[in-house]
Structures are given as C-alpha cells and as structure tokens.
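Late entry, evening session. Most of the bench is empty. Finally got around to the prediction I had been postponing all week. Sequence below, unchanged from the version circulated by S.P.
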Amino acid sequence: MENVLRPLIVVGGSVVLSLLIGWATDLLLRKADARHGETPLWGLLRRGRIPYQLVLFAAMLRGSYDQARLLVEHRVGIGRTLTLILIGSAAWLVIRIAAAVVETSYARYSRAQRDAARVRRVRTQVTLITRVVTAVVAVVAVASMLLTFPAMRAAGASLLASAGIIGIVAGVAAQSTLSNMFAGFQIAFGDMVRMGDTVVVDGEWGTVEEITLTFLTVRTWDERRITMPVSYFTSKPFENWSRGGAQMTGTVYWHLDHSAPLDAMREQLRDILRACPAWDGRECGLVVTDSTPNTLQVRALVTAKDADDIWTVRVTVREQMIHWLSAHHPYALPRVNTADAALPPGVVDPTPDDGPRRAHEPPRSTR
C-alpha cells in the first residue's frame, strides 16, 4: 500500500499545490487589474499563468521525486526531464513578464505623449527590445538545457576554449545575418525609420508595418507586402515622408490648350479644395510651368496633413477640374488643330485654281 500511496501523494500533491497556488495568484492579479484600470500591467501578467504553474509543478516534483520512489531505475532520466521542463517554463515565464513590463511602459508613454512621431519611435524601440530579450532568454535557456548533459558540458567547455571557434564566430559576425541585426539596432535607436512611417523604396510607396532585427516589412497602398533586409535602409537612400512631420505638399498637372481660362481655374481650384475634407487649408496655387507648340502645362499645388490625405486631395482636384473644364470650357482641353495654315503677309498661294495638289503629285508643267 505504501508503494502506491507514496507516489500518489507526491505527484498528486505537486499537481494540486501548483494548481492552487496558480489559481490564487491569478485571482490576485485579476483583482489588481480591476482595481488599477489605469495600467494594463496586471492584466498582461495574467498571460504568464500557464508557465508559472509549470514552474511550480516542475520545481515541486523535482524536489520531492526522490521521496516518491517511482520508477527508480529511470530516476536519473526523469529527474533530467523535470529539470529541462523547469528551465523551459522558467524562460517562458521570464519572457512573458518582460513583455508585460515593456508593453506597460509603452502604453503609459503613448497616453502621455501627443507627438505621433515620438510614439512611433518608441514603439519601434520597444518592439526590438522585446525581441532581443526573447532571443537572449531563449539562448540562455537552450544553453542551460544542454549543460545538464555531462557529455554536452564537456564538449561545450572544449569548444568555447578553442581559438578556432572564436575565429569562426568572428567570421560569422561579419556576415549578412549579424550585419542585419546591427542595422536593426541602428534603425531602432538612430530614428531613421519607424513603424507607421510612410516611405518610398525602389519606387514603391507604402507604410512600414513591421521591423525586426533582420528584416523590415512595408505595406503598399494596394495591400502588398514588401519584405527587405534592414541593412537596405542603412546602405541605400530612401524617401521617408513622415520624417520631420506628417504634413505633405502635392502637385497636380494638366496639359491644356493655350486658350485655357487660368483665372477661372484658380477660382475653381479654391472651390474644389474648400469642399474637400482632406485639404488642410495651408496652401493652394495654380501656375503655368511649361508650354509646348500645342499645349500648356498647368500645375496645381495642394497640401494635406499626411500622405493618405494628400493622395485624396490630388485625385479629387484632378478629377473635378477635368469635369469642370469639360462642362464649362471644353475649348480649353487639348485638341488637334486641323485648320488651314495662314500664309505670311505678301505671300501668294501657289496652289492652282483647279484645286489643291496632293503632296505626292509632281509639279504640273507650265508650258
């Protein structure tokens, strides 16, 4: 009977105690979250209840397993397995706690800060810091797991002491993977580009959607995702439309006839912009920027508060101005001139009276 009750008490007691302690801790966190609604820390800490219970269970069972006298011939293997579970669950718990603290700090900063550019900058830094912490904890956990095996411990010590391995590590550090990681830190803390920034890369216009230690994702206007290494932004020029402020200035071009009513177009441009909610009211203007033998190039200058609104203003002005010209001034639209050419003063028309001569006909004889 003792051989049955002893392992049942040890294993069952570890399970029950871990569940009770986990439930009590979760209840306290829930009450703290309800009492302190101004901070999301307590609610975020509740995400770690599963690894927390695993840590409790593995720690209690690892400490009392020898008393259970269960599967004595496999005692070493089971003890090592429980140690591995304890290390893995502890690393999982540390990652959850670090993520909760970082996200809480970012939430407080975003509520207190009204500058959207600074908020995006901190968001980028917080995201990369969280991933760095996750990577470091994961590496330490894996190394700790490997060191629980005597054979791996001896091999690890010999490898780390080897000068050849140090040379290999230095060579790998110079490769593209680690260079991208260093570029990720440079982007995060150098404020070159932030999550939510509007950028133009390789002729593609889009918004920075994700920044990791090795790659960056840009979401284009047509919902495509362009993924590129972060080293691109540290080695090549790119346009950042959100740098220094979100306000934008845009242009709209038309090619019109020389008789286009420019003053009336200026008045109509003001009317179109007043009726457009995306226009921020800072500036508007219409000038002739070029002329050709057949047309005038007319440019409208408009402004908006960000890149999305400037696109809306440009397409609205372009469409409504063409519609207005078609309805009220159709002569201003470009057309092909098919009228007879006017001769200079004093020049007699050489065309005979019997009609115009085709271009391919030879001159008629006058004899």
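Two things to note before I forget:
Residues 357-367 have pLDDT under 50 and may be disordered.
DSSP finds eleven helices and eight strands in the chain.
Will write this up properly tomorrow.
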